[in-house]
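Q: Structure tokens for this one, please.
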Amino acid sequence: MKIIVLTVGEPPLYDESKRLHRSGILSHKLSIKHKVEYWSSNFFHQKKEYFDIGKYKINKNLNFVSFPSLGYNKNISIKRYIDQFLFAFYIFFKLLKNKKNIDLIIVSMPTCDLAFSVSLFSKIFKIKYIVDVRDMWPDIFWLKFNKKKFISLIIKLLSLPQIIFRNYALKNANGITSITQDFLEWSTKKNKNKKLLSNYFYLSPNNNFTKNLNKTFNDKINICFFGVISYSKFDFKTLIKFLNTHDSNNLIFHICGDGDDLEKLKKDLSKYPNVKIYGYLNINDLSKIANISHYGLANYIPTKDFNMSIPNKIIEYLSYNIQIIYSLEGSTKKLLSANNIGRYYKSGDIYSLISVLSNLSYSQSGALYYNFYKEYFDKDKIYNSFCQFIESVYEKT
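A: Here is the predicted structure, written as tokens:
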């Protein structure tokens, strides 16, 4: 089978210093049995940086192809919308040129523009496609303003093209995949096709580095945070209140990541010697932090989209045998609490966070959290099942 895997914003396959994301890992797995081309924009969303345009041979069955992208500086911006539309338009014509060499397309959503472009092409030329839904686009933009009905309505009206693109792509797909059961149910509501095949496959980090499964405690507890530095996505305000009002000398916080609010966070936490802010780290340096950490802070603001998800950072903590402090409800809380994994606090509630952080254990847990990761989020298990699903879509729809 000849497969095109299409996405935007992920790191290039040829750069081993970058952690592969979902499309990259899937492309490698598929290339064991199939001819695969992984198409991407040449813009890495996480770092807001460009990489080389061109075609790169990764192995005998896998090529990585990067195409020009306008790029953007802010996650929410007009320039990002223009970038996504232009790239989707460009890809449509690239697909036209390659239509004789394509049996199946797997497109990630977001973006809605790219998924629509694939669906239109596939409809015309009778080529099967799968949409991998990873986020609640564009709903997340107006849901943030639910308490401000007028603003929410305006944003929804402005998002109408995206809604139409998304619904068309999902309605006509041969297969739909997503990252949790909750997300899958939301995604498949758009498709009434009786032949539709659908399934969810958890996120799983491409994390092959040596792990310290036997954490040792001295007189300090190390807590790491891996993620985007954004006050709109993470509950840093409650953490700051905790540090302002409570003795935390026995805790060392290691905050790793980049984002629009990095400088603000540095300023807000500058007076605390037990808080270390590193900015963006490559996988080698991140692994060093993970291997000394006892707890991982997953202080997400529990918006509807995050509550439907089990974010990659939570899974990454578990892969390093790190206990989790989390604020999400929904899919994450359901899974973790059912297995007595993690410590939940209510987002925005200083007393809830104090209760958790003041009672962290110094006791050893063996490989408890790593074993939980292996049971639910093991990369080989997930992506082997993912590949089998993709093959079944091609054969049965």
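A few notes: DSSP finds 16 helices and 15 strands in the chain. The chain has two domains: 2-200, 221-376.
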